[in-house]
Amino acid sequence: MSTPAKATLGRPRLFDEEAVLAELTALFWRQGYGRTTMAEIVAASGVHKPSLYRAFGSKEELFAIVLRRYLAERMAMFAALIDRAGNGVDGIHRFLEMFEADAVSERGRDGCLMVMASNELRGTLPGYEFSTDYRRQMRERIGVLITQALPEEQADSEFARARTDLLTTYLLGLQVIMRSGADAEEIHHYLNAMHLTVDTW
Amino acid sequence: MSTPAKATLGRPRLFDEEAVLAELTALFWRQGYGRTTMAEIVAASGVHKPSLYRAFGSKEELFAIVLRRYLAERMAMFAALIDRAGNGVDGIHRFLEMFEADAVSERGRDGCLMVMASNELRGTLPGYEFSTDYRRQMRERIGVLITQALPEEQADSEFARARTDLLTTYLLGLQVIMRSGADAEEIHHYLNAMHLTVDTW
DNA sequence: TGCATTCTGTACCGAACGGTACCTTAAGCA
DNA sequence: TGCTTAAGGTACCGTTCGGTACAGAATGCA
After folding, report:
1. Which chain B residue's Cα is nearest to A169?
2. Considering only CA atoms, which of B103, B169, B180, B113 is closest in space to residue A176?
């Protein structure tokens, strides 16, 4: 995707592109797109404005790069979580526990950058189909988790799909709750509702 | 709350305050707070800027007024829906159907103004405890719906509370999906997951 | 009728915004 | 070492932002 070993012509770049993108991801995540100014981006990255514009384009293009990178990372994280969760209904419990551990962490409190962006930027510029992609990819990952939890003959049933949809929607709602300032106790409380529901599966 | 029959001194106001607030609610709902400029607010309301500032204060105070008004209206609407839904598990089904009718309407596509605001404005200024209020009040209303659906001896059980929490979180997630550009079919699809879940209660 | 009070409406303000021109510096290559 | 290329860094640009000063207009009250 990126080209770390680019043309060796001219003065080499002094900043680490990946490190800068990671820093700016955290900044946008905290503040949103609209409330983050170029001055703050310059300060957080430690890179001067013209260098940022040459490397990433406009503020909007920069945010698109951040979003794409975040989506890929997030989906990889989800897949790893689901893989570690293991099979059976217990796998769902373990997944929820790992999800909670992330949710109460400093980063998790901010909810999901993608959910935030889809709320803030819906219908502004072409190319923002991120939110649809996110929902679709997240649903796919959750589908794997549900499949792991069910006996083979139910893996393709209507109930399996309904449980996938329910869990997907529930997790999106949980991210709203996380971003809206809930503390660890309240997050635990809402997660418990899904634990109890899963027990009836 | 408002004082329609105020002091009769001086020149009377030419615009209808409630109508202006309704118009501006729709504007903020569509665009969010940050992406809406005072120039657009002036255009949408048909009221000149100094009159807006005298009537509502700054842009931020205006948005706070809009949010408070929206919260009250929305909760009244929820309560009415739940009242009309009636008792038993069928009541939940009817509630979901009415919720869907609203979700696929022109307004419903934008999700929930409150969810949007809590995503966009988290931690910006004091006085934005709206998101917590919203979550708490919404959970209360859903609690009534669940209570109506259960036999009396289960109305105060742990399961009743878990179902309330699950449905609340689910509805928040659905509002994310609604705002992120899902069409009527996809909304129906995700709602079906909850219908099937409710059937197991 | 004249005064006090409140709203309308034009025209404007300083500040902050996203974005860039341009010079300097550092590298590869001949 | 001189040329080409690309990045660093300063200083600045035009626009748009939220917000307001001020004069005119419309009401109640004496």
Report:
1. B173
2. B169
